Amino acid sequence: MINLWQAHISFAMILFLLLPSFGLSKAWRVALLLALLAISYIPLDGLTLAAYLRSHIDDLAVTTLVFMAWGCLRRMDFLPPARGQTGVLTVFAVMALALYPATLGLSDLDPYRFGFSPRPMLVFVALLTLGLFYLRNYLAVVMLAGATLAFVVGIKPSHNYWDYLVDPLLGLYCCLALLVLAIGWIYGRLGSLRRSA
Question: How confident is the model at residue 18 (pLDDT cuts 50, 70, 90)?
């Protein structure tokens, strides 16, 4: 049952974050998110719209849900901007690059199997979370702590810790966002060099 709730919440948040804000007030943005949640229950050929989306993207990682929830709360002006967003992007881009090329057979090492008995991973993630807390990167702290707590409770059908930490959607988003930031930084540096010359 939790998976069905996750599918509906994911559907609503993804569409809410992809749609423009239309200059709506805070109350209307909240209403829009609730309307998208209601739309996710519309049946089509025996399946809800959320189930159709889930068939394409599968269940999202807990970190992705927390990240999207933060994005929705930001768009509704309930939260201030997060500190260290580049750090969040870097942490999860590195996780995705460590996991997915290997699972696609591009490496002899299979890090996914470590997620089935994840005691060393849990220690590493705990140390990483403490380090991010020290750096006051609270968004990353909540994402990692939420994923670990969800794994301990077992809210997803998967018994692999990786499935709580990262998914292809989050990994792709973080890698593309870092690439865009890097291109913008290089473009800015080239512009400043031209002006100084």
Answer: very high
